[in-house]
Amino acid sequence: MIKLDYNAAVRKQMNQFIKDNFSPSLKVIAKEISINYTMFADWYRGDRNVGDATLKKIEKFLRNHTK
């Protein structure tokens, strides 16, 4: 998968997670994933893309916290 598409796909999953879970704090999610809050917030807003390793951490979080 092309990195931009991968970022967009994971971002879409995160947007859905946040909607489905009553808008949890991005700071709490970033801490749980063990990534920098500012980087995570920028990624979430679509202001930046992150590398594969970070995307894998986010996907793991989503897998572990999605019903």
Question: What is this entry, summarized?
Answer:
The chain is mainly alpha-helical.
Structure commentary:
There is one protein chain. The chain has 67 residues and is mostly helical. 73% of the residues lie in helices and 0% in strands. It has four helices and no strands. It has one domain (3-65). The termini are far apart.
What percentage of the residues does DSSP assign to strands (E)?
Answer: under 5%
Distance between the termini: 25 Å
Let me know the largest β-sheet.
none
Bin the helical content: over 70%
If you compute it from the alpha carbons, what radius of gyration comes out, rounded to the nearest whole angstrom?
Answer: 11 Å
Reading the helices and strands in chain order gives HHHH
State the helix count: 4
Structural class: mainly alpha
Low-confidence stretches: none
* Total domain modules: 1
Shape category: globular
How many distinct beta strands? Answer: 0
- Mean pLDDT metric: 94
